[in-house]
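This entry is listed below:
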Amino acid sequence: MPTPLLQTKLYIPPVRPELVSRQRLIEQLNAGLHRKLTLISAPAGFGKTTLLSEWVAGCGRPVAWLSLDEGDNDSAQFWAYLIAALQTIHEGIGEATLAALQSPQPPSVEPLLTDLINEIAGLADSFTLALDDFHVITDQQVNDGITFLLDNLPPQIHLVLSSRADPPWPLARLRARREMTELRTSDLRFTSQEAAAFLNEAMRLDLSAEDVAALEDRTEGWIAGLQMAALSMRGQTAER
């Protein structure tokens, strides 16, 4: 009997009400849809998942979402979850692959993925597959499978990855072929305008331009750092 899958891992995170819109980054994500891969890579606290959920809400195409955790380093579980994510937008896709995964002696990953890739290639509409928190995946079999998928990716699918570290894939080759869009720490840092909007609108402070600039400089645009500073300032105000 197959292990039950946790359906909440397939839910797209809702857009936060205090969101500071990242329109400049949304435009870069939209511009990369014709490529195979979008990689959003930065340390914790730079708003990767928040950016991805904002973009998904307005990208105008179906999105299959999978939030990953360390348990997904089991190859069979990873591909079962990935197919479950695809089935949220294309009912029944990957059923033959799932059945093969659950057999007593499942085939190697390439024949499994060949069937799935051929199914995707037969779809009429384009869609996006978003894999969030990919840094938790360290299993070589899983990474080899994703590399095979990328090498043979049908034009209907665009893969988006958020991660705290680069995956061990042939990124240099994808970069050289202009098949990848990258957003990194330098892109994700808040600009002066974004920092001001976050502090004075989202966090409801009333800081001068000089105070905003000082906080931005101190945190180097790190969103989590700005949030901690804002919460501390709000706490000090409440105590007065």
Notes: The first strand starts at residue 37 and ends at 41. Residues 7-187 form a domain with the Rossmann fold fold (CATH 3.40.50.300). The two ends are 60 Å apart (CA to CA). Residues 223-239 form the longest helix (17 residues).
